[in-house]
């Protein structure tokens, strides 16, 4: 069983299903509304736990009804939450998610997520010592992420980072990351000039061999290994309802299956992402281990790995 430690954000999502995404100044009628647990750190932790990984989360929620509810939901999913702090200085993080025909637009108010400190992370040192892989994202302060990277390095653990929200990555953090798990926008924001231009992702992968996996939505995922070989993983063709949780399903699954090697772990991660888009909400459709295995067994002819 993989032992995964996740450092990241915890939100309460407000999900609006609409016929189209709203434009500036426009008021639309919606089709449905629901509150649902979210946040990239929480999503990744739940995704890993459902796949059988022993999973712990380092994060922060507010001392409010949403914070208490989210802690209990994480506990019910089997995530260890001893190092999920509670603060009185900010409300629990929240996100407004507009979902329309497989597309989504999200606004996040970080709230308590920005109260997570390096001291909170260092207090979880025993978890770093016993974990197999550490997975983090940038929805919490950089100082907390850097503390996680330093502890992972101290104990010789692979440190994987989802560079979201997209932006420039501090050089000192860049040096500590074993593998970046980025979509094309995050890739160009962190490693290029910020513009997604055709096949620019290929050049960026080649410039950082062994360091990046890029996810490309319906085009699958790709990685250039340390020897300069490009591995492209085709996506699985499935009906798409909501892509909100797909990236987190991918990241968590690749981390859980780290021991397979990146090319094979990408295939399993693409399968998990495919299952995550079958319904609305970022956590409701994250697959269990059995669901993932059954899906892979039933799609043996799809999602084949291509190595150039």
From TrEMBL:
Its EC number is 2.7.1.15. It is found in: Cytoplasm. It comes from the Bacteria. It catalyses: D-ribose + ATP = D-ribose 5-phosphate + ADP + H(+). GO terms for cellular component: cytosol. Pathway: Carbohydrate metabolism; D-ribose degradation; D-ribose 5-phosphate from beta-D-ribopyranose: step 2/2. The active site is at 248 (proton acceptor). Keywords: ATP-binding, Carbohydrate metabolism, Cytoplasm, Kinase, Magnesium, Metal-binding, Nucleotide-binding, Potassium, Transferase. K(+) binds at residues 242, 244, 276, 279, 281. Requires a divalent cation, most likely magnesium in vivo, as an electrophilic catalyst to aid phosphoryl group transfer. It is the chelate of the metal and the nucleotide that is the actual substrate. Homodimer. Catalyzes the phosphorylation of ribose at O-5 in a reaction requiring ATP and magnesium. The resulting D-ribose-5-phosphate can then be used either for sythesis of nucleotides, histidine, and tryptophan, or as a component of the pentose phosphate pathway. This is Ribokinase.
């Amino acid at each position: 069983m993989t032992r995964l430690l996740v450092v990241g954000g915890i939100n309460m999502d407000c999900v609006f299903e609409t016929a189209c995404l709203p434009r500036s100044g426009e008021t639309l009628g919606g089709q449905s509304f629901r509150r649902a647990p979210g946040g990239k750190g929480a999503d990744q932790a739940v995704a890993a736990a459902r796949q059988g990984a022993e999973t712990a989360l380092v994060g922060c929620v507010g001392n409010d009804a949403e914070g208490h509810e989210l802690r209990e939901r994480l506990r019910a999913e089997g995530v260890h939450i001893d190092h999920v702090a509670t603060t009185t200085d900010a409300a629990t993080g929240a996100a407004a998610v507009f979902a329309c025909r497989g597309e989504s637009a999200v606004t996040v108010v970080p709230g308590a997520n920005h109260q997570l400190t390096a001291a909170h992370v260092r207090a979880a040192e025993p978890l770093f010592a016993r974990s197999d892989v550490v997975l983090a994202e940038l929805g919490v302060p950089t100082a907390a992420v850097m503390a996680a990277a330093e502890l992972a390095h101290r104990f010789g653990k692979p440190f994987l980072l989802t560079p979201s929200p997209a932006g420039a990555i501090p050089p000192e953090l860049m040096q500590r990351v074993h593998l970046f798990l980025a979509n094309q926008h995050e890739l160009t924001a962190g490693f290029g000039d910020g513009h997604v231009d055709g096949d620019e992702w290929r050049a960026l992968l080649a410039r950082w061999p062994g360091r990046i996996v890029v996810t490309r939505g319906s085009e699958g995922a790709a990685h250039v290994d340390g020897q300069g070989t490009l591995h492209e993983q085709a996506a699985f063709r499935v009906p798409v309802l909501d892509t909100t949780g797909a990236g987190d399903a991918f990241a968590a699954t690749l981390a859980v299956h780290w021991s397979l090697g990146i090319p094979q772990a990408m295939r399993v991660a693409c399968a998990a992402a495919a299952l995550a888009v079958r319904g609305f909400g970022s956590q409701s459709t994250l697959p269990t281990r059995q669901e993932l295995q059954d899906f892979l067994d039933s799609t043996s002819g799809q999602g084949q790995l291509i190595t150039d």
